[in-house]
Design a protein that fits this description.
Blueprint lengths: L1 H6 L2 E6 L8 H9 L8 E5 L2 H9 L4 E4 L1
Antiparallel strand pairs: 1-2, 1-3
């Protein structure tokens, strides 16, 4: 049952700093998250893979539960 609760959880991810001037892998991670413009917000299912991506670019994004 706890698994179903985790599947329904979503995170709002907002790009708050430009990836210009940062390494290519970080830029690629921002694009893979679906972020293209400053202050753009996207919603994603909360998964371990997503959490890993967010840790890699935590200085560029804001995350809300």
């Amino acid at each position: 049952m706890p698994r179903k609760a985790a599947e329904g959880k979503t995170l709002k991810v907002t790009l708050v700093r430009s990836p210009i001037g940062y390494p290519k892998p970080q830029k690629a991670t921002v694009r893979a998250l679906g972020l293209r413009r400053m202050n753009q917000t996207v919603e994603h299912q909360d998964t371990p893979a997503l959490r890993g991506m967010l840790v890699a670019v935590r200085h560029l994004v804001r995350v809300e539960e």
